[in-house]
Amino acid sequence: MKNNSNRDSSPSTLRKTISFNRVLLKISGEVLSGKNQFGIDPVKTNDIAKIIKSIYDLGLQIGIVIGGGNIFRGISVSAKGMDRVAADYLGMMATVMNSVALQSELEKLDCNTRVMSALSITQLAEPYIRRRATRHLEKNRIVIFAGGTGNPYFTTDTAAVLRGIEINADVIIKGTKVDGVYSADPFIDSNAIRYEKLSFKEAIDKELKVMDLTAFTLCKENNLPIVVTDINNKDNLKNLIKFNNVGTIIS
What angle do CA 131, 135, 141 make, to 5 degrees? Predict the structure, then answer.
């Protein structure tokens, strides 16, 4: 596998040179709720599993991190008075629930899958051990990383980037509700401009909310590219992997 430090990461060349062998897919928990405002919608979860299956069949090594916002938002609840540490741990537990739900749907599609958790919940998930996770990936098992980083005060964005670095992923793919990074919220501003590619510096200078700053800084320091794309479009991930022409790349 190509080492990230040896990759030419300038935005003008990344579209041609990025190698998709091992990816870390970050999905927000809200995606699994479908049209509902909260909870897990089995139909929508199955739809997402089919999209992941489409790139699994291409021979890709896939790690996944799912947020827990469809079940519990630690930051929002702590702002209303709950102890931040307790709230964050509840949020981490929500990510375990989402991870097990996605694993169930992936295995219905004959995807060999493991859930590995930074929290100790041995009845549902293996404990996260980096070498074991890498071995699972090498055996073409999808690895879903649950429980965040195992520590409070860190978002699932940061957990995704951390896991991506640890497994030596080629790219972080952030699946969102929009088809890339825009100059403003495209649902609010019809004049918002979509960027095809950005440097880390440009994204920071423009104050674009790609990820939280801790996660974004980790990507920048470790030369780990980010692709932002619409996870709800069933063809986007496959087109990204096969043709490298979907979403916004930040490098």
Answer: 130
